[in-house]
Amino acid sequence: DTVLTQSPALAVSPGERVSISCRASEGVNSYMHWYQQKPGQQPKLLIYKASNLASGVPARFSGSGSGTDFTLTIDPVEADDTATYFCQQSWNDPWTFGGGTKLELK
Amino acid sequence: QVTLKESGPGILQPSQTLSLTCTFSGFSLSTYGMGVGWIRQPSGKGLEWLANIWWDDDKYYNPSLKNRLTISKDTSNNQAFLKITNVDTADTATYYCARIGLGAGWYFDFWGPGTMVTVSS
């Protein structure tokens, strides 16, 4: 299986820029997607195919990368961005998710 | 407007079969390229992809559970189903169904709110 590795947690101040990384154990082309999950809610699609902003998602969110290294960037971070962020690949079977990065605001 | 909603038994005993239903609106599983997937999440933990079913009735399963999973659909009633046989406490989780986006990319663009399932004797 393709293992996706994310840092467990990050803490940033509102107004700052934050980058959340996701490293794949093997290449996934550009088939990396990012989701935001707030406590008690279902995941929400933010970015699809590495760099495409999902409908209705603020332009503060952006994605980059290809192959094995991917980044979700939030700039500037707002208080409402407190959540866990998951990456997911759909290039290799089975589809897999990263362990999630919990973003906390200082 | 695309919506999905999962339903399930809430609680069941070890060795029983878990039956889940995903009822959706705003799209059709008979549309070319459309798919629905099932994903689960134990409390406080990460997401695990379980299975996908496509418009042409193609099915894909996570090999780690493949022998226990059966995914199916009822296109006319806008529903998708997942059965997991011989459940164990490790199957306790919130189960989500999600639409697989039409654009080439195979991502989950809309999710249901999830249904909690507890396996306990």
Question: What is shown here, in short?
Answer:
The complex is a heterodimer of chains A (106) and B (121). Chain A has 106 residues and is mainly β.
Could you characterize the architecture of this molecule?
The complex is a heterodimer of chains A (106) and B (121). Chain A is mainly beta and 106 residues long. Chain A has no helices and eleven strands. In chain A, a hairpin with a 6-residue loop joins strand 9 and strand 10. Chain B is mostly beta strands. Chain B has strands spanning 3-7, 11-12, 18-25, 35-41, 48-54, 59-61, 69-74, 79-84, 93-100, 108-111, 115-119. In chain B, strands 2, 4, 5, 6, 9, 10 and 11 form a seven-stranded mixed sheet that branches. A four-stranded antiparallel sheet of chain B has the order 1-3-8-7, with no helix packed on it. In chain B, strand 5 (48-54) and strand 6 (59-61) form a beta hairpin. Chain B starts with a strand and ends with a strand. The chains are: A mainly beta (106), B mainly beta (121). At the A-B interface, strand 5 and strand 10 of A face strand 5 and strand 10 of B.
Estimated helix fraction of chain A:
under 10%
What coarse outline of chain B follows from CA principal-axis ratios?
A: globular
Distance between the termini of chain A: 36 Å
* Residue windows where pLDDT falls under 50 for at least 5 positions of chain A: none
CA-CA gap between termini of chain B = 40 Å
Helix content of chain B: under 10%
The overall strand count of chain A is 11
Q: Kindly provide the radius of gyration of chain B, computed on alpha-carbon positions and rounded to a whole number of angstroms.
A: 14 Å
